[in-house]
Amino acid sequence: MRPAPVVRTRQRLRRSTAMEGVLYGGLPREAAKELRLQPQGSEEAKAFVSAFLKRSMPQKKDEAIQDVLTRKAVVLEHHCRRRKQPKRRKTKTFTAKQRRELRLFEIEPEQQRYELFLPLHELWKQYIRDLCYGLKPDAQPQMVQSKLLKADLHGAIVTVTKSKCPSYVGITGIILQEFKHVFKIITKDNKLKVPKMNNVFSLETDGFISYIYGSKFQFRASERSAKKFKLKGTIDL
Fold it and tell me: Are 39 and 29 in contact (CB under 8 A)?
């Protein structure tokens, strides 16, 4: 036979009153002397416990605290206030239109001189040697080509060997800027800009000659470094 609901409530009340008696009861005199505490009455003990619970559970009201105490055990934890994280301010950058208006990537005419960029070419040669493990004579050509495909070409000397436009064939110069569709090359005649499309460029590094097919090379330098190139038997202009 299951007890009726009235019997259940009576049992809960008896348990709660018994717990209150234990909780708010005074300490024995001998224990108080050993702990060097002053004995308190039941009213003082209730006031202390209620104040302690308010500090331990500041988010709950008095009624909620009493309701929790009469129904189940409470595990007291240290209440940590959450620190408000400061909002990160996004750095403002120039748009492509603003960069074009400010001409950030344009080289001034007085600075378009071939001899000014020869030190850049020397730096590039040292960079390629370090990238290709010294470019020793016994180095594998496929390894050199795979490194060049993802390398930074700013400062490299290239020559147009094949082109659908005959006037481009034979142009040799230092790559100053690389865009998606254009190499900005400065020649000994101090001229700039050669498109990648329909052009084949040769690049020599310590005896290793590599060919760049511009039509298959139309990527930005940042995109090329993460691009996976596939080997092909024949490539058209």
Answer: yes
Distance CA 163, CA 160 (A): 7
Residue 123: both structure tokens together = 């730096």
Pairing of strands 182-187, 194-195: antiparallel
- pLDDT tier at 6, thresholds 50, 70, 90: very low
pLDDT of residue 137: 78
Query: 179: closest CA among 209, 147, 214, 145?
Result: 214
- CA–CA separation, 19 and 9 (whole Å): 15
- Tell me the two tokens of residue 18: 């018994």
Q: Cα dihedral sign for 5, 6, 8, 12?
A: positive
Neighbour count for residue 217 (Cβ, 10 Å): 21
Quick one: pLDDT band at residue 1, thresholds 50, 70, 90? very low
